[in-house]
Amino acid sequence: MKISTGEKTFYNINNIVIFIISITCMLPLLYIVATSFSSGSAIQSGKVYLWPVEFTPAAYKVLFVSTDIFKYFWNSVVLTGVGTILSLVFTILCAYPLSKKKLFARKKITFFVVFTMLFAGGMIPSYLLVKSLGLMNSYWSIWLTMLISPYNMLIMKSFFENIPEELEESARIDGCSEWRILLQMYLPLSKAVIATLCLFYGVAYWNNFLKVLMYINDSKGFTLPVLIQQMVFQLEQIKLGTSTDLGAVAGSSEVISESVKSAGVVVLILPMLAVYPFIQKYFVKGVMLGSVKG
To answer: Are 266 and 32 in contact (CB under 8 A)?
Structure first.
């Protein structure tokens, strides 16, 4: 099909705008990587922009030698893996019945779900509830409070509603039960939206910092974001002369809290960057099909 001059101009402007937005998104990441590999003196003097200055892996040595980072990494993997599976299962189990027009009080139930997106209980009531349930110092306190995201549930519900009813009716004529229709018909057709929600939930659990800090008291259960926060805090204390916990790096001009924080951010985002290319092809399709009702 021949493209008109006006359409060519529109596409060219779109490409330029998208390129600028992409560069804008990449610059902070490049700065973080450059900072993590630069010396403390270069960072403090403001010489670091997009390329490491006075290259040194000292910040990563602090992370991998002075801390038990692999234990924290495993904790993050467990928290994210189990939490994502639980959230996906319960999101599907909530979205499937709400996608059926014959469900009693369907609109009212959906309204209450949407209501929680606008008005949440708040941090203190949530903390008191978790404490009264005896879930403190357990990952269940995080899994249960993040079990279903209303936004993600609505995406899944909209996707289910777009599946033709004729498919379900033919399955019922063949004698399929409700569970079999869900497991053998709906879920295989929903790979794109499931992959998208898996990414949404995975990122939310992986980056979760506040809930771990609030509900987990034992340091054995801390995750990577908490480790990074503790490292930065200890380095600040060393800088002020009130702590020598990280004696190996105390007084070193190569390492400052900024470089350790940047190294921690790089370590934190690497798993997400490794996973994203494998589900990127489902991402746009899943969001669009789940958010637009035909």
So the answer is: yes
